[in-house]
Design goal:
The chain contains two helices and twelve strands, in the order αββββββββαββββ. It is mainly β. The strands form four sheets. The chain has a five-stranded antiparallel β-sheet, with helices on one face. Strands 4-7-9 form a three-stranded antiparallel β-sheet, with no helix packed on it. The chain has a two-stranded antiparallel ribbon with strand order 2-3. The protein starts with a helix and ends in a 9-residue tail after the last strand.
Length: about 180
């Protein structure tokens, strides 16, 4: 009985030693929340969680969808754009591929195994579009590769336009530039 209780109590702690999820899916929205001060939700790879940004007391996420506002045909439109909320040299995003369909983008994403030394990382991405593939270098010096699967545009209850990006990601938490599953 005592041994069974020890094993049951020890199971949750095994997850602590395993580390962050290396692969998954995330949805980043540019929708703003709050009343006096506004924030949006970003994703933090190490924790595998969404956090409010900017929001005192929450960890700073690794990636947010900050959006670009443009004028199109006399109307304001919003387009998705990634941002890494921390500043630093050689962190941010590098677009490594654009494709016409999900199958080609997925094939490239899955075959991309190592980050090259020739990539230029920028704090802000270009306008994010369907079937693009990005590499991100985080403030901790870790890499993530991301496949943009879906981009949606919507209007919130207050009438503000926002956009959402759905991505698959593979995260390398140990600073290695090689993606292993």
């Amino acid at each position: 009985m005592w041994l069974g209780g020890m094993l049951a109590a020890g199971l949750p702690s095994c997850e602590l030693f395993r580390g962050p999820d290396r692969t998954g899916e995330m949805k980043l929205s540019s929708q703003l929340f709050g009343t006096d001060s506004y924030y949006l939700f970003g994703y933090h790879y190490e924790d595998g969680e969404y956090y409010r940004y900017p929001f005192q007391g929450d960890p700073v996420p690794d990636i947010i969808n900050e959006r670009i506002r443009i004028l199109q045909g006399g109307e304001v439109a919003v387009l998705p754009q990634f941002n890494t909320p921390t500043t630093g040299e050689k962190i941010g995003f590098a677009k490594i591929g654009e494709f016409g369909n999900l199958e080609d983008a997925r094939a490239f994403y899955e075959s991309y195994e190592s980050v090259g030394n020739d990539l230029q990382f920028e704090t802000y991405s270009d306008t994010v579009e369907l079937y693009q593939v990005y590499v991100q270098r985080t403030k901790d010096g870790n890499y993530a590769k991301m496949l943009v699967k879906d981009v949606n545009f919507d209007t919130g209850e207050s009438g503000n336009k926002f956009c959402e990006v759905v991505m698959e990601y593979t995260y390398q938490p140990n600073g290695s530039s090689t993606f292993t599953e």
